User: What shape does this take?
Amino acid sequence: MPTETISLGFHGAARTVTGSKYLLRRGGASLLVDCGMFQGLKELRLRNWTAPAFDPKAVTAVALTHTHIDHCGYLPRLVRSGFAGQVLCTPPTADLLPIVLKDAAKLQQEDADFFNKHGLSKHKPAEPLFTEDDVERTLGLLQVVEYGRPFKAAEALEATFLDVGHILGSAMVHVRAGSDGVQRTVLFSGDVGRYDAPLTPDPTVPPPSDYVVVESTYGNRTHGAERPIDELERVVKMVLKTGGVLLVPAFAVGRSQQLLYLLRQLESAGRIPRLPIHVDSPMAFATTEVYLKYLESGQARMDPLTGGPMVGENIRLHKSVEESRRLADLRGPAVVIASSGMLAGGRVLHHLKNFLTREGSVLAIAGYQAMGTRGRLLLDGKRTVKIYGEEIVIRGSVVDMDGFSGHGDSNELMRWLGGLSGAPRKVFVTHGEPDQSAALGERITREKGWATHVPEMDEQVEL
Ligand SMILES: [Zn+2]
Assistant: This one.
């Protein structure tokens, strides 16, 4: 490849929402933007086990947009496969990453143990995708960069993080590629947050860019008009009436903090009585402490007057497995918040089996549910789910708290793109199921007249 050529490869989150990996190359230098794990459907999850279409050893550096697993969860595997360059990220992301990746390594090990114990693996013995050692090595590569400060990611690849308002630490990445000769600017949206959302600032106005890679999780949908706080009040009142347990599966990073924050607000305003709130996640505990650390910088929008989300005698945090098990005897009305957010694994599965098999209980979904996950199946109306091989019949109610989504909807994505001064040469629409990506691409062309393209998995384009 001549040194002047700049190319971009889409090695994940192409016509699907998970596995984000975009490789920007110029000559011998390359920057991988995000290094996410594939989640959801089995055919996607299996992709984590096949080598990526690029050589991990040849990647110069990685830039992370945020700490959700579908954006950072493959990183230890990349390191295990020989990557040894810098991992660049914002300060809050650097604080959250150890919590998230150590938890992921533990889950990998638990899964491998489970498969070995029950003889379910075709490989004997089943191996974890990565280990805690790989995570330690990964963390040793971290390089923290402040928002708004340009940094050299690789030779002739200069990048800047700008807040995109999705979760604490989340960023879009603006890359200037090339020095003499060919020059291109490429903007990677990361996950675009909401406007006027609790705990997160509005997405930053995007800087002028030759090319834009935009997510499209909700490329063809709009969120309901109901505000998250009103939705939450309505759902809490359901269990106040039935005396059941309200179970909210939540990402430990972001969603759990928003829920606690809004529950406190509802209490303070006298809109709901004080009821027992249980957060069953050591990870949510640790991440909330990181949120509090950034409270003053304005990056985590919390109201100190309400005491922050951790204060309150009725809020109990459960760290150990024994504490978690004791929750099985809980009687409502009460709220239980546990991860994982898509019911793909974790402690929430035990609570689902325990509480949702009872009438009067409520399962409130508060975030995007990828295809193939239990959360998605339940939202689509299914009333039985398989948990560790056992078929469970759901007798409680399932409610979609759509307003809690951390992703901008179609209108919000258009509003964000509308901040670009001048037309980009092309907008690549990624991180969405095919219909969502196609619809957003068409809308951009229709309303703005810009050229768009929905790349396929492992497609490579020259810029
Ligand atoms: Zn995300």
Observations:
- The domain at 228-404 is CATH 3.40.50.10890 (Rossmann fold).
- Residues 66, 68, 71, 166, 191 surround zinc ion (CB under 6 Å).
- Residues 91-117 form the longest helix (27 residues).
